[in-house]
Design goal:
This protein has 424 residues and is of the alpha/beta class. It has 2 domains: 199 residues, NAD(P)-binding Rossmann-like Domain (Rossmann fold); 170 residues, Glycogen Phosphorylase B (Rossmann fold, 3-Layer(aba) Sandwich), CATH 3.40.50.2000. The protein has 15 helices and 13 strands. The longest helix is centred in the first third of the chain and has 16 residues.
């Protein structure tokens, strides 16, 4: 078994993948118009689905989405006329043998392409799957070297990237790939690592579709808060106790609570913890309720619920993004060093909370600040600026100009401005 693992590791090594690409990925631009998008893993991750949909919604071209399997990403009805899937199971996650096969398939498919984009998100710095991070960068490098306009879209950069991932990304940039970093903290880290990057914001800020069906179904006409208990944070009695404290505090504010999972797949499943937290509330404070969403919802429905919620508490960054774009305060548990930069963009550092002991007390402190008059006005003003900044991801792929509005003079890094609380 050990020998087999060693052989497989050698077949996935960066230098071998790079050599294979030079032989197999030989397509050159021919003036096509189709936009190719290399998707994140998907399958059980609302954030990954939201990233892909946002790209298609923000562009005008037909889009071919490169996936491992057609089960990874859904094609929503409103995008079915412009969006198609190209399954290449080994392009990013396979060995050199499978990668060579899929690189040849990609090369043939690119005959009608006008551009190639790669979703960067939080999967470029090697923090999750090193081999996949490196392979994405190698594909970008080899395509850019052949003259393709290649961009790696809105990604965060860890404070301690894996050295191999860093070298691979640097080579991609040197070959001509455009690196688009989604927050100022990541940008500073990347530049400190001698990467040439362009500042932008998360791609999901460009999403245009919203559906309030889930808000009506799970919350009705009540005032409510959305709570996500992330599988990344972990489980156990201590974690559950802290989350229950968070829910009790929201009840004390006169809010019902809707528990919503954001990821459901092996190793990081939100559903079990959300389901456990939904039990035992027959004596909930002030008669407030706890309602479980027991499945992953489409991104448009998540955005609809987030827009209607008074407050959001989440362990998943893209739920925070979909809340903030509607001006809804989203207290977010920081993981992988990627939340701090998001809250820097919104001049709302108080919304970033580290997981761990006394979580309920620290979330409550953040909620006190988030509930101050004027918070929604502050976040909405910042959202307009951040959304326009995010258009850098699709510059040249969209016919609609989106000038970046200036930051308002009322904003401040110390907290929200004064003013009236409003709900959308």
């Amino acid at each position: 078994m050990r020998v087999k693992q060693q052989v497989r590791g050698a077949l996935k090594a960066g230098p071998l993948i790079r050599a294979v690409d030079r032989v197999s990925l030989r397509a050159r631009p021919r003036g096509g118009t189709t936009a190719f998008l290399i998707a994140p893993p998907g399958r059980g991750n609302i954030g990954d689905q939201a990233l892909v949909e946002a790209f298609v919604e923000a562009t005008d071209a037909a889009v071919v989405v490169v996936v491992r399997s057609v089960a990874d990403i859904d094609i929503p009805p409103h995008l079915s006329d412009r969006m198609s899937l190209l399954p290449l199971p080994a392009l990013i996650y396979g060995t050199a043998i499978g990668h060579a096969r899929d690189a040849r398939r990609l090369s043939r498919a690119l005959r009608d392409a006008g551009s190639v984009s790669i979703i960067g998100a939080d999967i470029m710095d090697g923090a999750y799957v090193l081999g996949a991070s490196v392979t994405r960068a190698i594909v970008a490098e080899n395509l850019a070297a052949r003259g393709w306009p290649v961009r790696i879209l809105g990604f965060s950069w860890n404070g301690r990237p894996h050295p191999v991932a860093l070298r691979a990304l640097r080579r991609a940039a040197d070959a001509g790939a455009t690196l688009l970093v989604r927050d100022p903290v990541s940008s500073a880290r990347a530049r400190a690592d001698v990467l040439t990057v362009t500042d932008t914001a998360d791609l999901v800020f460009l999403a245009r579709s919203t559906d309030d069906a889930a808000a009506r179904r799970y919350a009705g006409d009540a005032r409510f808060a959305l709570v996500n208990a992330s599988g990344l944070i972990g489980g156990g009695d201590d974690v559950e106790r802290e989350y229950r404290g968070v829910i009790a505090g929201l009840h004390d504010r006169g809010l019902d609570v809707v528990l919503v999972p954001h990821v459901s797949r092996a190793g990081a499943d939100d559903v079990p913890l959300c389901a456990a937290l939904a039990t035992g509330w027959s004596d909930a404070a002030h008669g407030r309720s706890v309602t479980l969403v027991d499945r992953l919802l489409p991104p448009a429905q998540i955005r609809g619920m987030a827009a209607e919620a008074d407050l959001v508490v989440t362990g998943r960054m893209h739920l925070a993004v979909m809340s903030l774009m509607a001006g809804t305060p989203a207290v977010t548990l920081a993981t992988q060093g990627k939340v701090e930069g998001l809250m820097t963009l919104f001049e709302a550092p108080y919304l970033c909370v580290d997981p761990g002991p006394d979580l309920a007390a620290r979330v409550e402190a953040a909620l006190v600040t988030a509930s101050q008059p004027g918070t929604r006005a502050h976040l909405s003003a910042r959202a307009a600026h951040v959304r326009a900044l995010a258009t850098e991801n699709v510059h040249g792929l969209s016919a609609e100009p989106h000038p970046i509005p200036p930051a308002t003079s009322e904003t401040s890094t110390s907290g929200p401005p004064r003013g009236a609380v409003t709900r959308p």
